[in-house]
Structures are given as C-alpha cells and as structure tokens.
Design brief:
- The chain has about 300 residues and is an alpha+beta fold.
- The chain has a single domain, classed as paralog of FGE (formylglycine-generating enzyme).
- It contains 7 helices and 13 strands.
- The strands form 5 sheets. It has a 4-stranded mixed beta sheet with strand order 11-10-9-12. The chain has a 3-stranded antiparallel beta sheet with strand order 5-6-7, covered by helices on one side. It has a two-stranded antiparallel sheet with strand order 1-4.
- The longest helix is centred in the first third of the chain and has 27 residues.
- The protein is globular.
Length: about 300
C-alpha cells in the first residue's frame, strides 16, 4: 500500500466514489430516512480518519509520512497547561445518552439514562506528562499495590515499565511520536494510556477515575470554571455498557461492547470535530493503549 502506484489507485478510487456519492446525495430529499446512509458513510469516514492516525502512530511510520498531515493541521500539537485546582460540583441529576433525536446517532450514544450524582470533586484537566512521570519515577510500574489483578497480569504479560511510546521519563519525558523522538511538555495531556494504567495512577495518587455521569456533568456544566477536555478520549470508571435499552442495529458503527471493555468519553483532537462532544462514547479493551486515550481523576 506504500508503493506510489498503489497509492494513486486508491486516490483515484476515492475520487470516483466521492463523485458518485455526491450525485446520489444531490437526488436525495432531506428526510432522516433518505439521508441515513450518507450520514452513516460520513461517520464511518470520520472514524477511519482517526483510526488511520492511530495506526500511523502504532506503526511508527517515518517522519516524512507525517509531514503533509502536520502541515494541513491534521496532526495537532496539544496545548501545555499549568495545573489548576480541581473543580467541585454539587449533587444533581444528569442525563446520559442522546435519546430520540432527529438525524443519526452512533450506537454507543443511543438510549437515555437519567441518574443522580452525589457531590464530587474532579480534575480541571487530564493528567499531564509531568504527573505521569512522577508515578513512573516512584516505581509505579513495579508496585503491585497500585494495580488491579487484571492490570497486574496485563503489565507482566506486556513487560511494560513505561507507557507506550515513552522512551524516557526522568529529566523530561521523551516520546516516540510522528516517526521521531520528541520531548513533550509536562503540562500536555499524557496519551496512549490503557485503562489499567489510568486506574494504577489513581490508586498511587489516592484518587479514583470519574464515573461516566460525573464526567458528562462536568463537561456540560463546568467549562466556564476551567474544565477542559477534547485533547484525548478519556477513560472513566467501570465496564462499558449500552445506555438503557439501546441495542445493536443495522449499519453498525459501534458493536456492542465485549465483556471486558471499558468506556472512553469526549473524543480526541486527532479526530473530526464532529466526533468530539460531551456525550461521545467509545468502547475499548482495558489493556488497549492504541487510542489517543488519557484520563483525569476525582477525589475519593
């Protein structure tokens, strides 16, 4: 697929497919039924775009393969933020899921659940590289007490002593990114972390992962108080579950979660803006560190 001839064939196919699709779209009416397949195709393309970015990072493609995407703003540089005090929110009710709305909604976001949330305190921003480096330098990857049973088994099987793509944690964090070794700012959101690593950091820090309801509530109502999100998908506590009575339907984008799947929320800066919103949900295995995934913590 990396050969010039193959690449040109793919581009030609994409151009022809786009032209045919736009011709069909021009003939469709504005009803949800008529536009369903086009919305599904657009959502699929959005997901593939982020999946290709994840694959490029996982495969550690040479730097020249990233240059054009970077120039076009498709490989953003995440901001580095100074740490802010956690945000306290009062107990209240929160609605999860999109419910019945016009248009197309991914399977993972269908359904409607109302739940009560007790008073809680949540980080204003995701955990940064500097905070993660403290965990590493304190021997967090060797402390059995920090890890769940499943997390420790994953750690031993992987042989991991630092997060994926991290080459150095002492004296500044060095990460293999975009085909080259880069020093990352300490205040930048740490990425490519598994749910096991997120839970271990929280245990080490004496904190916990937020629930889905807590995270959604903060994302919807605390932005004016400094709650920032969207750098990366964020792990939350508990196993992934469909919302309410939501079930799989035709034209799947999200299959039903596996028994050991965990939930990621919000979206990442490496995906389409259409994928980033407070109710965005994604499933992944607890040991999957391929996504642009990060996390934040709550007070216990």
């Amino acid at each position: 697929w990396a050969e010039p001839v193959a690449a040109q064939r793919v581009r030609s196919y994409l151009a022809a497919t786009l032209e045919a699709t736009l011709e069909l779209l021009d003939k469709a009416d504005d009803s949800d039924d008529a536009l369903h397949v086009f919305r599904l195709a657009l959502a699929h393309e959005d997901r593939l775009g982020e999946a290709l970015a994840e694959a490029a990072q996982a495969l550690d493609l040479p730097a020249e393969h990233h240059a054009q995407a970077t120039a076009q703003g498709l490989w953003p540089e995440l901001p580095s933020r100074g740490r802010r005090d956690p945000i306290g929110l009062p107990g209240q009710r929160v609605t999860l899921g999109a419910g019945v709305v016009p248009g197309w909604v991914p399977e993972a976001e269908r359904g409607l659940v109302q739940t009560a949330v007790a008073e809680f305190e949540i980080d204003a921003q995701p955990v940064g590289w500097a905070e993660l480096a403290e965990f590493i330098q304190d021997g967090g990857y060797d402390q059995r007490s920090c890890w769940t049973e499943a997390g420790w088994a994953w750690l031993q099987a992987s042989g991991r002593r630092v997060p994926r793509h991290v080459a150095q944690a002492a004296g500044g964090v060095l990460v293999q990114r975009q085909g080259r070794l880069q020093r990352v700012p300490g205040g930048q959101a740490a990425l490519h972390l598994s749910a096991h690593e997120a839970a271990a950091w929280c245990q080490w820090a004496g904190r916990r992962l937020p629930t889905e309801a807590e995270w959604v509530l903060a994302a919807q109502r605390a932005s004016a108080r400094g709650f920032v999100w969207g750098d990366g998908w964020e792990w939350v506590a508990g196993r992934a579950q469909p919302l309410g009575a939501a079930t799989a339907t035709s034209g799947l984008i999200d299959v039903l979660p596996a028994p050991d799947a965990r939930l990621l929320l919000g979206g990442s800066a490496y995906g389409s803006p259409r994928l980033r919103h407070a109710r965005a949900r994604r499933y992944a295995g607890a040991g999957d560190d391929t996504p642009f995934a990060t996390f934040r913590s709550c007070a216990r």
